[in-house]
Specification:
It comes from Paenibacillus azoreducens. It holds the Pfam family ABATE. This protein has a two-stranded antiparallel ribbon with strand order 1-2. The chain has a two-stranded antiparallel ribbon with strand order 3-4. Strands 5-6 form a two-stranded antiparallel sheet. By secondary structure, the protein is mainly α. α1 packs across α5. The radius of gyration is 19 Å and the shape is globular. It has a single domain, classed as Orthogonal Bundle (Jann2411-like fold), CATH 1.10.3300. The protein starts with a helix and ends with a helix.
């Protein structure tokens, strides 16, 4: 595939197919994977399946489950961490049991390939990518914006890899201004 950061951007885009940015109070966000055709377009855009591959309702349901369960593994994600890590991984691993993979060796490298067809093949490629990014210690670069009204998944390209906000101009600036106002308010009460 592409570079590690390009692959991370693809993963972030997968998570953002459920856009959780709030436009009004209690906004559930916007779901972009509503029909099998939506998933097919997304998988084709990233060349995870071909135009001939079919995507059905079951593939769509599995995609949404995978998106939700693997999102819980994002290092700084405090929004989806219901339950303990063992329970989270148990649900994910049960879902992964429905996938089968094989190895292929070529002259210079090896690859892990999904054995499924259609939409499940594309989801299998996505799982291989997640596996490889975690194995290569790149997974910590996938972050969830710490603004509760945003929760946009982004790729942290900063040197230390500890970014908190999807963008400093919006979410970061709001958080810092809020902290400043709270400090000033507290200072005002201490006089």
């Amino acid at each position: 595939m592409g570079t590690d950061f390009e692959e991370l951007e693809m993963i972030a885009d997968f998570y953002n197919t459920h856009d959780r940015r709030m436009r009004f109070e209690n906004d559930p966000g916007v779901e972009h994977l509503n029909r099998p055709e939506d998933l097919k377009r997304w998988l084709e855009r990233y060349h995870l399946i071909s135009k001939e591959d079919e995507v059905n309702d079951q593939d769509l349901n599995i995609a949404i489950q995978l998106r939700n369960e693997t999102r819980k593994m994002i290092v700084n994600n405090v929004f989806d961490g219901q339950g303990d890590a063992a329970d989270t991984l148990k649900e994910l691993n049960e879902l992964l049991n429905s996938f089968n993979f094989t190895f292929r060796f070529t002259g210079e490298h090896e690859e892990l390939l999904p054995l499924q067809r259609g939409g499940r093949k594309g989801l299998g490629h996505l799982l291989v990518l997640i596996f490889e990014l975690r194995r290569q210690k790149m997974w910590n670069r996938i972050r969830v914006c710490s603004a509760a009204d945003c929760q946009w998944v982004f790729v942290d390209r900063s040197r230390p890899g500890t970014g908190k906000w999807c963008t400093m101009k919006a979410c970061g600036n709001r958080a810092k201004n809020k902290a400043y106002r709270e400090r000033k308010k507290t200072e005002g009460h201490s006089c």
